[in-house]
């Protein structure tokens, strides 16, 4: 379906309530017993051809046979052509420049299903997971984002983030299928497409790193539900897990502070900025983060929309953006 070509829902024309066409035959295979493909998998990638091909091999074997869209961030390793040769059923979108996490937005806009699951080029969904996720989203209309349990390859141990979510630090809401969350790893998330697009998707000011927190805040501020469901499983095989480079740390710090400027109270924002500035006196990585923050601060202020105080309290409970 072309971008923006969704129309309005009309009785008998094969569209669902979101205006998305329901196929009379399974899309890209579909799931047994269902008339339509419910979930599209979107992958953003750059210069990781071998990992991407392994991931696509796993995704294309899923019994749900979801439509798959790969959005390539101007790779230089021949990845797009390799995908077309080995997986002709996968749709490849090549971007002229690296757009970071916002490449996922491109894939979501091109998806023709009501729900979109994200994978990284080193992550994939377990058989049946997308079916379970779709049914949960069908049954809970306020649910905008579902986070599955992430298992780490090769032994399947749970990711620490999943373990934390499973303890339900924010409690549970009656109209959601699992514990409430206010943040998520993108490689374990399934979103309701129209809700994702309504808040603008991932913000291009952040580029990469911490983009999930801002999206979660924006969804929750609009009274959209976010929940963890441990019966939905994704696998992740991260390269260099546990070893964060100074550059990656600086990027995360910059983005965490940018999010406070865009959404949190002046007091919390000032305290978080002061901590980074104090660290910058002796730490080169912190100094780089602060410099990058200051360059983006005017744009962040132009996008400032403070979230309700209740959400700020939840952020404090989770010890996020500290």
Automatic annotation (TrEMBL):
GO terms for molecular function: glycosyltransferase activity. Its EC number is 2.4.-.-. Residues 40-196 form the Glycosyltransferase 2-like domain. Residues 1-33 are annotated as: Disordered. Residues 9-19 have a biased composition (Low complexity). Keywords: Glycosyltransferase, Transferase. Transmembrane segments: none annotated. It holds the Pfam family Glycos_transf_2. InterPro entries: Glyco_trans_2-like, Glycosyltransf_2, Nucleotide-diphossugar_trans. Belongs to the glycosyltransferase 2 family. This is Glycosyltransferase family 2 protein.
């Amino acid at each position: 379906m072309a971008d923006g070509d969704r129309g309005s829902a009309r009785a008998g024309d094969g569209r669902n309530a979101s205006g998305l066409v329901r196929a009379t035959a399974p899309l890209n295979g579909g799931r047994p017993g269902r008339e339509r493909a419910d979930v599209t998998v979107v992958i953003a990638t750059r210069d990781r051809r071998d990992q991407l091909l392994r991931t696509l091999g796993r995704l294309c074997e899923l019994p749900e046979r979801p439509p798959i869209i790969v959005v390539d961030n101007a790779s230089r390793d021949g990845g797009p052509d390799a995908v077309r040769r080995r997986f002709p059923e996968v749709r490849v979108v090549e971007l002229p420049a690296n757009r970071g996490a916002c490449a996922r937005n491109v894939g979501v806009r091109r998806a023709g299903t009501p729900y979109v699951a994200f994978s990284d080029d080193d992550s994939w969904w377990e058989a049946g997971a997308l079916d379970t996720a779709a049914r949960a989203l069908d049954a809970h209309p306020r649910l905008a984002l579902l986070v599955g349990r992430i298992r780490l390859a090769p032994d399947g141990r749970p990711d620490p983030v999943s373990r934390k979510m499973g303890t339900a630090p924010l409690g549970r809401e009656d109209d959601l299928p699992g514990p409430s969350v206010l943040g998520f790893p993108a490689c374990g998330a399934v979103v309701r497409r129209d809700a994702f697009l309504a808040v603008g998707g991932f913000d291009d000011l952040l580029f990469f790193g911490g983009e999930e927190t801002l999206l979660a805040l924006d969804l929750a501020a609009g009274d959209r539900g976010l929940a963890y469901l441990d019966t939905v499983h994704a696998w992740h095989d991260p390269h260099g897990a546990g070893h964060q480079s100074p550059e990656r740390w600086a990027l995360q710090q910059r983005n965490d502070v940018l999010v406070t400027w865009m959404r949190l109270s002046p007091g919390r924002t000032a305290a978080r900025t002061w901590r980074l500035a104090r660290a910058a006196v002796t730490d080169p990585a912190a100094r780089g983060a602060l410099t990058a923050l200051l360059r983006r601060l005017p744009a962040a202020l132009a996008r400032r929309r403070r979230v309700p105080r209740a959400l700020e309290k939840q952020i404090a409970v989770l010890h996020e953006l500290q």
